[in-house]
Structure formats: C-alpha cells, structure tokens
Write a structure and sequence with these properties.
11 strands, 15 helices, alpha/beta, globular, six-stranded mixed β-sheet, disordered N terminus
Length: about 350
C-alpha cells in the first residue's frame, strides 16, 4: 500500500506558517521515492495549478525532480485553448517543457463532468507514460479537501471517504493508469495562500466560469464553507480523525497482507482464511474491496453492501462471484481469481 496521508506531511498544525516553497520542499523530500521517476505537472491556468507550477520551478535544484508540464484542453470552453497557450508562455519563461493535449468529443454539449474528468486523467496517464514519467501532480488544495469531505459526509460516506484525498494515490483510471501515481502536493495550503504566492511572483491566472456556477454541488459547498468558519473547523476535525484511523488501518492491513496473502501468476491471489476471519469486520471489508478491485481489473471499488455480504466468506466453498472475480475456499485458503469470460 502507498504511504498516503501520513501525519508528517498532512498534519496542518505541523506546517502552519510555512511558505508555499517550504511546504512543497517538505513534500518532495518526504516522497522522494515516489517522485524519483519524474513528474508530470497538470496545469490548467487556474490559480491552484499555476501556483503548483511556479512553486516547482522555484525549488532548489538539489531536490527538484525531473518535471514536464501539460495542459488538457477539454474542448468544452472557447477560452480553454487560450488558457493552455498562456500556460505554455509561462513555461517558456521558466525553461520548462510544455504540451497541450486536446480532447475530442462527438457531442461536446452532452459531456458530463465525470466523463471529462475520466478523459482528462486518461490523457494525462498516456502523456506521462510517453515521456517515461511515473507520477502526475495536481493542484488540489485544502479548500478542495474540505469540500470533498463535506460532500462525502452528506452522501453517508464511511471512514475512508471522510479521510479525503490522499497525498499519493493510484491515478483513478484503469488500465491507462497502471503503475502511475497521482500526487497532490498542495493539500495543506489554502487557495488564498496560493493566490498571495502568485501575486508575490507577479503571476496572473485564469478564472474558470464553472467555478461560480451554482448548478454544481461543489460550487454550492464552496460558497457555504466560505461564509461558515465554524463548519470549516468542524470538517478539519472530521478529516484529522479519519486520516489517523485510515493510517492505522493501512499499516495493520499492510503487515497482515505481507504474512497471509500470496499473488499468483495470471493475476490471481490467495489468502489464509483463518487469519482473515480473525481480522476486525471493517478491515476484512476493506481488504476484500481492494483485492477484488485489483484481481478483477476494475477501475472502481465494488458496492460496499455487496462486499459486506462476503466478509464471512459464506458459500465460498462452492464458489462465489463478485466484481469480476471468483472466490473459492479450499483447505483453509481462499483463491480469488479473475472470473472466466
């Protein structure tokens, strides 16, 4: 499992008062191994990603990873091309490589935000692979983090959802994103901090009109949190507690899996059933959801209620199927293999 949301990086009290460059330097040093294969910066022209660009350009050479910059033109707004070219001009002044990726749609008017997001990540993953880079960085901020927690809490999300976005995570497209990480170096910084930083270096940014469109849930949540500091403080508490618990669970599951799980040729895996049944139900559920997703080659986790029905492995002696996998228990071992097509 990847080292994500570790207190050394994401504990806001530990970095409070540090400059943007100091926080980024801390992030790069801590995640040196994850960034050693080079980094693709996804820069849209908005304040958050432009701050990411300028901050990386300002890092001391001794810790700066190999970087390349890309802007994705979704083809959904007339201004997008000009914004991408603006990013290119900034990169030229900074001495950085920049590419523009243009997405094509048969009917742009019918494209949803989810479709655009998936296409963007797919294009970014392909670009990273083309240039031999192993990680993609985005400009997600603390504002984005708390908005995410608020939305997930309203949807009834559990512990893992309330822990928000991770510092380092698998890129959320499959199979395009195989072995490419998504990193978010700015999660401990507020958007206003980043805009102050940009003003300090004399940089301008573009404003995406969708960020003020209250037809989108995230915009409504952003407006609510902007005027409600007590709610922001409450969400910070929820996030901190959930992160701490997720770290504890991840450490425990990593140690457990190293002892009791074997991965087999062909993409299957097997685990020790008595040891599995001794785990707490919540850990069994998380393990099963992750394993089924990996073995089944899926992009998203299985529905939680379906996975919950299998945490005691009922009926698996005869064989059960879920999420593109077949589970079979024999002689105290559960084999999880891709379901035959």
């Amino acid at each position: 499992m990847c080292r994500n949301n570790l207190p050394a990086v994401t504990e806001r009290s530990d970095v409070k008062g540090r400059s943007v460059i100091e926080r980024l330097s801390r992030f790069v040093s801590f995640y040196e191994d994850e960034l050693s294969g080079g980094l693709l910066l996804a820069v849209s022209g908005g304040s958050d990603s432009l701050a990411l660009l300028h901050a990386f350009a300002s890092l001391p050479t001794v810790i700066k990873p190999a970087i390349r910059v890309v802007t994705v033109d979704h083809g959904l707004r007339l201004e997008a091309r000009a914004e991408a070219e603006m990013v290119g001009d900034v990169c030229k002044r900074l001495g950085l490589h920049h590419d523009i990726l243009t997405l094509a749609w048969d009917d742009a008017a019918s494209v949803s935000q989810a479709q655009a997001r998936r296409a963007r990540y797919g294009a970014l993953a392909a670009q990273a692979r083309t240039h031999g880079l192993t990680a993609i960085a985005t400009g997600h901020t603390c504002d984005d983090q708390l908005e995410t927690v608020f939305i997930r809490q309203g949807a009834g999300s559990g512990l893992y959802g309330l822990a928000g976005m991770a510092d380092v995570a698998p890129i959320p497209v499959w199979p395009e994103g195989y072995d490419i990480s998504l990193v978010r170096p700015l999660l401990t910084l507020w958007r206003n901090d980043l805009r102050d930083f940009l003003k300090g270096v004399g940089a301008e940014w573009a404003e995406d009109p969708s960020n003020t469109n209250t037809a989108f849930e995230r915009v409504r949540v952003r407006n609510l949190l902007r005027d409600n500091p007590d709610e922001v403080k409450r969400l910070e508490g929820v996030l901190g507690h959930a992160i701490s618990q997720r770290i504890s669970d991840a450490d425990q599951l990593s140690d457990w899996a190293a002892r009791y799980v074997d991965f087999l040729v062909g993409g299957a895996a097997e685990f020790d059933v008595p040891a599995f049944l001794k785990l707490q139900p919540a850990l069994r559920l998380r393990f099963l959801m992750a394993l089924l997703t990996a073995v089944g080659g899926k992009e998203a986790l299985p529905r939680q209620e379906k996975a919950e029905a299998l945490i005691d492995l009922p009926g698996c002696e005869a064989g059960r199927t879920l999420h593109g996998c077949r589970l079979q228990v024999r002689d105290g071992v559960c084999l999880v293999a891709p379901e035959p097509v």
